[in-house]
Amino acid sequence: MAAESNSNSSSNLRIIVENNPSDSQLSELGIRSWPKWGCPPGKYQLKFDEQETCYLLRGKVKVKSKYSSEVVEFGAGDLVILPKGLSCTWDVSVAVDKHYKFDSSSPSSSS
Predict the structure, then answer these.
(1) Rounded to whole angstroms, what are the CA distances from 30 to 3, 25, 33, 67?
(2) 41-87 pLDDT, tens per residue?
(3) Fewer CB within 10 A of the terminal residue: the chain, N end or C end?
(4) Which residues contact 63 (CB under 8 A, 6 or more apart)?
(5) How many helices (H) and strands (E) does the chain have?
(6) Sign of CA dihedral 37, 48, 51, 43
(7) What residue spans define the domains of the chain?
(8) Is 13 helix (H, G, I), strand (E, B) or coil?
(9) Which CATH superfamily hosts domain 13-103?
């Protein structure tokens, strides 16, 4: 993926959402081999120490960054990149089930 984030400044901590990526893109990323995580509806305070890429199998989430007033919404079928250093609140209205991967080196690294 050609997503780049400069996490030196908290104002650059942007969440990237791709709606309904193609099956071929999901296969290329190897998403079905990634671990799964889920949570029930509720509000969760989260901090991302590494960049996370996730694909939501089900759910609906509104994310409010601690550093801005911007609210980002995503749900089932969305591919989401959460930048390293992001502190946020997840307001989960529909239980989440997702595949996820932490990228400790660079967004283009492959494992």
Answers:
(1) 17, 9, 6, 32
(2) 999 999 999 999 999 999 999 999 998 888 999 999 999 999 999 99
(3) C
(4) 15, 71, 72, 73, 74, 88, 89, 90, 91
(5) 1, 7
(6) positive
(7) 13-103
(8) coil
(9) Jelly Rolls (2.60.120.10)
DSSP 36-58: EEEE-SEEEEEE-SSEEEEEEEE
Structure tokens, 41 = 């509806």
15-45 tens-digit pLDDT: 999 999 999 999 999 999 999 999 999 999 9
Token pair of 78 as six digits: 């969305």
Distance CA 7, CA 41 (A): 29
Structure tokens at 33: 């081999």
Confidence (pTM): 0.82
The token pair at 94 is 């529909």
